[in-house]
């Protein structure tokens, strides 16, 4: 069976003016495989309605609450109702919303960090397993073609045994006490009631952690962390510095900050192996620098026709080299892969490769376990704390 | 009246595998203001159908020919039929297709170069004027936020009186005789029957010419051109070098090439005025370098929150600084402005600013006149040939 | 009294083929304020003689041992004998040679790390103090004009209160077990008998530590260090990762490595304050990136005529902007300042600014104390170890 | 015979505060093969004396005029007198001074442009030939290691048959009428009595022309030039735009300007052949970008140990990769090669390679012929003017 239609997407959160909801929408629809057909965009019915209007949704498909939407859509005929729901609300709402969606039979896309704590993450993991539904966590940086190329090379052995990883994720937008100025994004992110126990670690740190694992395939075995609050009056961490040990003996340095004044969104990763090293920077995402012991430095370039790229990297490019793709396209790449998984699910097929290339609930569990461990390490006078991410029981 | 719906787009050309048609689709729909509802994607009905299937269009809205589509859509009820048609066929088809669309009352988006010659361009200009319909020519590079910023600065006087412009557009993909290898894109572009009299000048040169005018507002008054064919066996120009004089006395150098081996799509422009100079490069589009006589060098950065940007540049960013936007988003920017124009047309409103910020039929006429003049100059032993772009009569 | 002559330099170590000795010579003489007049270039008299010949020194001024040279020169008439000696031997020889030179009345330039351990460093400090002679330690990276500019800005308050420092110093040349391949530089550096207890920490780590202090003026108060050996068979550290706390509450991350495969000499520092941040990279040393909260990014550029630079930065440039100066010129800058100090000493004058702008014995003591502390931290299971650098007694 | 001593250099011009004279001195002496032993630094005896004092020269070797110096040195015993003279005076003085030096038996280093016109250049060429003395013209940019690498690749066929050359040399320091503000460098350069008929073409254009020939080995066969004066009140060209044809059919674009506001010293060259292209930029001189049709982009890096470099490129590096060398070192490279030639001459040997790798009087003749031709082209209404550089008769 071939469904031959666009997948139908619903959205929780993401009212007009929200940052990440808008990105999800653009990314989801740009490749003509998904259409947005309904939403509960805000806890304010009026804001939700206004957003629906701007997006040209039919009024009846704009809901006052996520519960209403999920129940409402479930009650529609199968060939009308949404296939999956995208959750782009503040952190503490992810869990109940995702749970409710899964329990009612909908596939889920959830923004990161996945939940407010590890317990919720584990519960969500069990539920995904039980229901067999598709769940994607939007660690969108793994969608960049040159991140995929980096992964092919680092995991695939081209660099030899890996020895060292340096990841940096500096931003500067919280260099002042933004959360007291009426800045909405800053306000909720800085409120422990909403985000859990961490600010920067959840907002950007989990991306960095996920990126390390995606590219290197290494397992963090111990952490030595200091989560600091450098802006007076702030309630949670805004500058995180962590040393890492990996299970193969490799070493890592992990720096995440939102008080690195003037920095935009400067995620960078460097990975060094016995034979070579690579470097990728999110702000110039279409290049991947590769250094070798005995050959000239190479710059691999994104492009569906670019020389030297792996098939997976090429397949994640829409354009020939020299036509820059960016943040939204990387985001769209993971949506495309999610759409493939959902379509296969509907059609009763499995992935031909045995797995899908998008971040999922297991990544979310590891992320929440990482947060828990670095918080524990921060409070400890012991240098090294083992990092163990719980496994879902069978 | 507020139409409150997405605009309905039809497409001529752009079957699966085509480069530019796919970009148009992604760019058009990503911001939720436009939906693709029909297409005549290929001269082969089978290919057209297959493309429609991949795009999940209803079968009856996939047509066998552009004529069928235009007539077919015209005959549909007003609240169903397409609002505009996007033409992404080889150059020599632009004119008859655009003409037919306009004559039947449809707004038009047309890929560049606009027509095969200046005569057709003039005729199209008259038709646009007569019909009062909206016509956009996709000189998409003007959609980049930092190009808009450059224009604000250069045209707005921030650099002082302008003195010098250097534009370069090197590509390398035609460094071998690709057109004889079965490469479809290369084949039609290299066939004078299809493209008119120029290869590189039409394919990338017109973008460069348009970019100069958009950013500087200067008028080319004389050209001294050499269009060369550097790959043996090729039928048209593949390397163009031109000196320019502008009407205010400024000087220009213009370099376009498709045999600059190894170059991707390296469009760059530098503009120097009495007080400062600026530099923009398409392959790193989110930065604009600004040099001053007496102040440190600045890098203005794209971003809807970026310091130092004009309102128009910010408005053309979807994301905060550090979240790279690329080729497709720039393309989407001109589609958004086109959508605004079409919506206003339908609603009977005028642009509140008196004009729209997208390239139109007048740009197309200037482009075709420029091609004609540089060809003339190439053949001439006279050093300088005046450049006069014909005006549409009232 | 104005001596009006070039200062006379002698050299210990630096036979033909040695890396750093040759740099010292070029740097010292290029500005016409110093001439090399004698040397004991090698423990092999033959090699020493050969080096003297290549340098066109008179035979009688080429000595078989440093003791011979120091005594020999001391016995020459005052208007012939050397003014100062430069020591460019392996680490463990620095102390006895510098001591002997000082005891015999010669000013000293000593390569880093200053000594093999903190005890020697303290003893040398006392001796410098007692003799009143001039002592320079060649932390040459502080000689770059843009490092001086960075220091003016960071120490001078332009960035506001400092909060975060990230220093990275990756090299890749020890990614294999070079010391077993007959590579002379690798061999002695990797021998604990010669270098003391550290490899990478002494070779590049001390530069990084010194650079932090020079630019920021902050004091490290606590360290949390892991010095690792990642290449099997190596006897000392080759990869160092350290978290820092500064006495004002700022945080730091410190990464030094010689197994970062493919990296050349990629020293970088980033400093963030309340109002702005700056970034400098040794491999592109003529630029200093400055980021602000509310203004566009600036690139300050080296040049004796460059806009926006402090006087001290300009004074350390020989050339106008756009004429790159490099490693040797930075090295020459500290030699020029040393020459000024020695000349003043000979002429019986003090520095008009009260101090000289070159790294001295106090920097060396701090460096050795830092090494001691990070070694201690590496062995400790305690997270944080206080860093206290001993003061010289009066 | 092995002279085993430093070569003795005299200097004409280059009084304290002059730009280029100081560079010559630093470059000449830094490698311990040359010493400055005399000078006639200024037409003002007082300034000359003051410069001699700063350089710590003996009073009797500081002369009041170049004639006095040349005669005075000639009359000294052979083992005391200078070996060669470096001429760093304004353009119109080069010819009489070089002539006088050659006629009196001294080798010559002369700054560019070589003479005030082609006639003088030819006469100097004959004199060099007649006397058999060594003559170097300081087109110093050819001394950069990565320029040598570029030459090895482009001339050596690695890029295939060459098709296209783009050279740009923008500076911005004459964007205002500097010559009226008391700026000494600007004043003499802008005075036709002193420089001949060109400003920018002589000051930077000849470097660009020489660089094309050095790297590509191509011969310019025709020029189509416009030398313009863009700043009102200026007497000569300040912005030059030229199209080139080469004898093998390749095309070129040549842009030189001193009114490119804000530009420092931004010499760049791009060369494209059938198989690959390369790009070098003087402001980041230690990298050479190489692009291929079918392989990833490479960045070759300077360094005496850098992978992928030719022997000649490595030999022109003093330092390992990652230790930046700059303008002065490139200058020193051509001085080292000149010193080798002079030493061989004194010792009665020939170059073992049959020729020396420094720019000589033949380059100077071609440069003056190029200036003459582009001036002629500028005045002509004909598009193309043949470029023929006269050959010296045997």
Topology record:
Four copies of one chain form a homotetramer.
Chain A: E1 7-13, H1 19-29, E2 34-40, H2 45-54, H3 66-74, E3 84-88, H4 91-103, E4 107-110, H5 118-131, E5 135-137, H6 145-156, E6 162-170, H7 184-189, H8 192-195, H9 200-216, E7 220-228, E8 239-246, E9 251-257, E10 268-273, E11 276-281, E12 287-292, E13 297-301, H10 311-315, H11 327-347, H12 361-379, E14 385-386
Parallel strand pairs in A: 1-2, 1-3, 3-4, 4-5, 6-9
Antiparallel strand pairs in A: 6-10, 7-8, 7-14, 8-9, 10-11, 11-12, 12-13
Helix pairs in contact in A: 1-11, 4-5, 5-12, 6-9, 9-12
Total individual domains of chain A: 2
Largest interface: A-C, 45 and 45 residues
Largest sheet of chain A: 9 strands, mixed
Question: What coarse outline of chain A follows from CA principal-axis ratios?
Answer: globular
CATH class of the largest domain in chain A: Alpha Beta
Number of strands of chain A: 14
Following the backbone from N to C, one meets helices and strands of chain A in this order, namely EHEHHEHEHEHEHHHEEEEEEEHHHE
Question: Can you count the helices of chain A?
Answer: 12
Which architecture of the largest domain in chain A does the CATH hierarchy give at level 2? 2-Layer Sandwich
Helix content of chain A: 25-40%
Q: What kind of assembly state do the chains in view correspond to? A: homotetramer
Distance between the termini of chain A: 30 Å
Provide mean pLDDT of chain A, rounded. Answer: 95
- Using the CA coordinates, give the radius of gyration of chain A: 21 Å
Which structural class best describes the helix and strand composition of chain A?
Answer: alpha/beta
In CATH terms, the superfamily of the largest domain in chain A is Dihydrodipicolinate Reductase, domain 2
Strand order of the largest sheet of chain A: 13-12-11-10-6-9-8-7-14
Unreliable sequence segments of chain A = none
What is CATH's topology name of the largest domain in chain A?
A: Dihydrodipicolinate Reductase, domain 2
Proportion of residues in β-strands of chain A: 15-25%
């Amino acid at each position: 069976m071939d469904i031959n239609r666009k997948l139908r997407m619903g959205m929780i959160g993401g009212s007009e003016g929200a940052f990440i909801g808008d990105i999800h929408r653009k990314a989801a629809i740009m490749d003509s495989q998904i259409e947005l057909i309904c939403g509960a965009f805000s806890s304010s019915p009026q804001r939700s309605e206004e957003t629906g209007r701007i997006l040209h949704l039919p009024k009846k498909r704009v809901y006052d609450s996520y519960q209403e939407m999920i129940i409402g859509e479930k009650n529609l005929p199968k060939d009308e109702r949404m296939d999956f729901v995208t959750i782009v609300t503040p952190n503490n709402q992810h869990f109940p919303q995702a749970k409710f969606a899964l329990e009612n039979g909908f596939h889920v896309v959830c923004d990161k960090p996945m939940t407010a704590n590890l317990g919720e993450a584990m519960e969500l993991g069990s539920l995904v397993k039980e229901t067999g539904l598709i769940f994607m966590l939007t660690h969108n940086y793994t969608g960049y073609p040159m991140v995929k190329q980096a992964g092919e090379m680092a995991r695939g052995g081209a660099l030899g045994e890996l020895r060292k990883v340096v990841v940096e994720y500096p931003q500067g937008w919280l260099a002042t006490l933004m959360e007291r100025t009426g800045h909405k994004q800053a306000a909720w992110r800085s409120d422990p009631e909403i985000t859990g126990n961490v600010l920067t670690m959840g907002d950007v740190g989990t991306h960095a952690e996920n990126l390390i694992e995606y590219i290197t395939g290494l397992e963090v075995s111990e952490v030595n962390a200091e989560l600091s609050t450098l802006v007076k009056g702030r309630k949670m961490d805004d500058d995180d510095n962590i040393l890492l040990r990996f299970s193969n003996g490799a070493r890592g340095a992990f720096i995440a900050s939102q008080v690195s004044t003037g920095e935009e969104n400067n995620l960078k990763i460097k990975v060094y192996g016995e034979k070579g090293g690579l470097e990728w920077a999110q702000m110039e995402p279409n290049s991947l620098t590769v250094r070798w012991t005995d050959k000239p430095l190479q710059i691999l370039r994104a492009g569906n026709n670019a020389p030297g790229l792996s098939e997976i990297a090429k397949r994640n490019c829409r354009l020939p080299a020299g036509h820059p793709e960016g943040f939204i396209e990387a985001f769209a790449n993971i949506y495309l892969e999610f759409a493939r998984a959902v379509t296969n699910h509907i059609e009763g097929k499995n992935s031909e490769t045995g797995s899908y290339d998008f971040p999922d609930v297991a990544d979310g569990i590891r992320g929440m376990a990482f947060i828990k461990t670095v918080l524990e390490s921060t409070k400890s006078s012991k240098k090294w704390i083992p990092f163990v991410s719980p496994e879902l029981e069978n």
